[in-house]
Amino acid sequence: MSGTDWLVALGLLLVIEGILPFAAPALWREGFGRMLALRDGQLRFIGAASMLGGVFLLWMLN
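and the corresponding C-alpha cells:
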C-alpha cells in the first residue's frame, strides 16, 4: 500500500463522516448529544467494535 492509498482512504473516511451532518444536521446533533451522555466504557466498547469491524472488513476484502 503506497502513501497515496492512505490519502485516498483518509479522503473517503472524511466524505463518509461528512454525509450525515450535511444531509441531516438536526439528526446528527441529536445523535452526537446521545453520545455525550454515554459513559467512557460504553464509548470505548463502541470504538473497539468499530475498529474490529473495520479490520474484519479489510481482511475480507484482501
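(Above: one complete record from the training split.) The chain has a mean pLDDT of 92.
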